[in-house]
Amino acid sequence: MAFRKLPMIGSPYMTMMMLTRQKTRFLPYLVVLTSVLILILGSESGASQKLEDEQFGPQFRQALKPWTGDWDGMVNRNQIRVLVPFSKTFFFLDGGRQRGLTYDLMKIFAKQINEELKRKIVQVQLVFIPVNRDELIPDLLNGVGDIAAGGLTITPERKELIDFSDPVLTNVREIIVTGPSSPSLSSLHDLAGKAIHVRKSSSFYEHLVRLNASFRSAGKPEIKLIPEEENLEDEDLLEMVNAGLLPMLVMDSPKAEFWAQIFKNIRLHPDLAIHTGGEIAWAFRKNSPKLKKVVNRFVRNNKKGTLVGNMLFTRYLKNTTYVKHALAKQERKKFQSLMHVFEKTAKPYGFNWVLAMALGYQESMLDQKKRSSAGAIGVMQLLPSTARDPNVNIPNINKLEPNIHAGVKYLHFLHDRYFRDPNISQLNQWLFAIASYNAGPARIAKLRSEAPSMGLNPNKWFKNVEIVAAKHIGRETVQYVSNIYKYFIAYRLILEKEATKSALQH
Known about the structure:
By secondary structure, the protein is α+β, with helices and mostly antiparallel strands. About 45% of the residues lie in helices and about 15% in strands. The chain has helices at about 45-55, 60-65, 70-75, 100-115, 135-140, 155-160, 205-215, 235-240, 255-260, 290-300, 330-345, 355-365, 385-390, 400-420, 425-440, 440-450, 460-470, 475-505, and strands at about 15-20, 30-35, 80-85, 90-95, 95-100, 125-130, 145-155, 165, 170-180, 195-200, 225, 250, 265-285. Strands 1, 2, 3, 6, 7, 8, 9, 12 and 13 form a nine-stranded mixed beta sheet that branches. Strands 4-5 form a two-stranded antiparallel sheet. Helix 12 packs across helix 18. The longest helix has about 30 residues, at about 475-505. InterPro entries: Lysozyme-like_dom_sf, Solute-binding_3/MltF_N, Transglycosylase_SLT_dom_1.
């Protein structure tokens, strides 16, 4: 709903600082500096506060600088920097609280190393650094982090660059996962000529390229490898498969087995594995033998049942609003019947009509009859007071076209008033406008203003201002923008397919 007021949520047990991925050669950071890993159970609150205050002294300055030392140096610095994907699985924020599999596992790691070091007051702290997957290895090599803990598969190509711990998981199969829009598959040969969306930074991509080589040798059509956004994690893509937005993807079997408990429309194909015998491990630089020894000791004692068996993060996902099946037959009819209305309405404002339509689907599933308990109306879920505002001034929003017009005009107003800035990319301008549609422009402006003090880039939504939003607002606005972005990708796929079909007919 437009201009929704949201509560601010915080945690008295956490002090958090974030350092951005600066656009310079030597400061490519996005750091979450925490004091939540002061793991002295039952400690005095005064001692905890003292440690929290210390986070903003020398340690804070140290985290700003690239560093490539080994374990002894980390102990002397009182910090270990952990590179991790920002995702629903490994690491995410919810109203100021840090959560996720890597976070939970690292709490155990921090507790054990501080016990071994007999650190009771000044402890070795963890610095979480959320990055895109394609940045995990480069940032590790450049000294941005000390450990990369993002479910990395050990491959010969990666071993040439970095070192790995003992495997956290072994015998991992990279399997095909299909959804309601998938073609029938009975063997890997059925993948010939089909399309699979995959991140180029993943081991899946490497193994699909090898499979394509075997298809070429056998005279079969290659799999169409469609490079996917590095902003999207495996579970984001799986969510889209579950909703029928994508037909299929490749996923590590343990992760797929977990998510099959959440997403009921997916089908796992353990017999259709593009790679078997995989090993997943933590990674670090080759010049870190002492760190390797410490990590391997921890992995040997904690690997079994931690990553998969306990399913630590089931409780995090119960209230998440996942994307819906925007490409189902009935939903495609809605899309096709309204696309010209959105296109016609958005054109005078220079707004991407596909993105506007994705917002409409998130708000109402393109249902003009929808009414909210707060009084929001129609496809764009506008409040009458918003439509009457002089900056919008569109009457009769109870009717379809005026409703869409008012929503698009309001988005345009948000964009022009708050985010038309040459320092912000066009996509990010619209992402900020969309976030403002949900949380209000004043709230988003405040979050952007806080980003630099937390070391984040105020001109980027993903992995930057969305983290500030997750901390202060909670997951609603983050999920709202994420869902709209996924619908946007899905609608683009429809248009691309229709354009290809039309070209073939002519």
